[in-house]
Amino acid sequence: MPQAHSLLWHYLWVAPHVLQLGLALVLWRRGLHRQFPVFFAYLIFEAVEELLLYALDVSPAVSSETWWSVFLPGAVIEGLLRFAIVAELWRHLMRPWTALARAGAAVIRAVVVTLILGAAVVVALHEPNRNHLVIKIAHPLQQSFFLVQAGLTVSIFLFASYFKISWPRMAFGIAFGFAIDWCGHLAVWTILNTTIATSARASLDMVNLATYHLTVMVWAYYILVPETAGDDDLDLPADPTLDIWNRELERLLQ
Amino acid sequence: MNLTFLIVVAAVLGLGSVVSVGLARRQRHTPKAALTELVPLDVEAFRNLTDPAEEDYLRRHLPPAEYRTVRRARLRAMAAYVHLASRNAALLAQIGQAVAMQKDPERARATRRMINDAFLLRRNATVALARIYLALVLPGTGAALPRFQDQYMKVVASAMLFGRLQDPASASRFSLALQ
Questions:
Q1: ipTM for the whole complex
Q2: Is A86 on the interface with B (CB under 8 A)?
């Protein structure tokens, strides 16, 4: 059974955040922070926040209540940054295709409203199982953020897939990583919101940490590994029958 | 507990759909392969099928029960045509996006126009299919598809211009492949 404060637990908490600081440096050096400014800000903010939370967690002087009091404002800022990242990714996806952008925006607005209503219902039906006020707020808040953000990202993926919109490579990598993270975190935070044993709680924390590690690895792949050139030309073998059609077409066009 | 179960299942399904989209992206068609998958659409037959005058004629000359049967068959045929047009539009959008990085401004403009027209047709096809299926379920509702064939022909014209600018031999290929 995975345990808190095991070697694996320390690794999963620290390593992805050190790696994401490295990725932020790569983005900066390649000038990509200008294309994805919100994602760049997120990489730095999230890494610093999580490393601070880690330091507070391992420090014996810090109580559980103090830790959650630091966690909550960070989670709010991080949640808002994630919404801004979704908007940034949407702009990258739809920027070239103005004809579809308006219809797409209407669909996404409807999805957001539905998801927010869904999150409100989930929070209303939630039975608080902790005494401390900050924890009472933090758990449903995290669940609501992940519910809306996971639903939104999956909807954008399905929309792009239905219309066969090609994602720019890096935007795809960022969105793919977040989709894995947010769907995983949604499932975990939903279970954490119920009454479960402390040992199971520790295992679920590890699942959250492992999911985030996977997400950072996905980003690393899409940021560090260059795209291979595809067979994207339209050179077709000559067909004598079509030459006749061509001549007729040229004549019509003139 | 039921709500928890539902949300966890939804999260797993969401993750599964994103991963399947990611895998599909790795196996995307090359423009050449996509071009061979275009299926010609008989625009004139489609136009007849959606002609309100033909619909009126059938209503006036057939017994009601037979008319309803014929109408259902016509609606199903209409749906098949719209599906085909929508699929062709998706393939054209894929072809255009795969070769979208054009240095020549005229080519770039033609490519962008074809992709935008294809996206619009696919969007309109979605609405058209919804209307057709609604008309199948509720026979009283109309399934008129105003200007859908014209929109399809606009996409064909954009595709021909795009093909001609890529390679003069491609224009007729697009024309033959689409109608």
A1: 0.81
A2: no
Whole-number Å distance between alpha carbons of A211 and A67? 22
Distances (CA, A) of B109 to A111, B96, B166: 32, 11, 12
* Domain region containing A64: 7-253
Using only C-alpha atoms, chain B has a radius of gyration, in whole angstroms, of 20
Q: Is there a domain that residue A2 lies in? A: no
Question: Is residue A88 in some structural domain?
Answer: yes
Which residues from B are below 8 Å from A125, CB to CB? 3
Q: How far apart are the first and last CA of chain B?
A: 55
Span A123-169, pLDDT tens digits: 888 776 656 778 888 888 888 999 999 999 999 999 999 998 989 99
Establish if A36 belongs to a structural domain: yes
Q: Is the residue at A20 inside a domain? A: yes
Number of domains making up chain A = 1
CB A75 within 8 Å of CB A143: no
Whether B116 and A100 have beta carbons less than 8 Å apart is answered as: yes
Nearest to A143 by CA among A109, A180, A188: A188
- The answer to whether residue B31 neighbours chain A at the CB level (below 8 Å) is yes
| pLDDT per residue as tens digits for the range A96-112 | 888 788 889 999 999 99
Sign of CA dihedral B151, B157, B160, B165: negative
pLDDT digits (tens, 9 = 90+) for A51-109: 999 999 999 999 888 999 999 999 999 999 999 999 999 999 998 888 788 889 999 99
Q: pTM of the entire structure?
A: 0.84
Residue B144, chain A, CB below 8 Å: the answer is no
**B170 part of contact set with chain A, CB < 8 Å:** yes
Give me the residue spans of the domains in chain B: 1-29, 37-178
Cα gap B82→B79, rounded to integer Å: 5
CA–CA dist B24, B142 (Å, integer): 37
- Give the DSSP letter of residue A132: S
CA–CA min distance B159, chain A (Å): 13
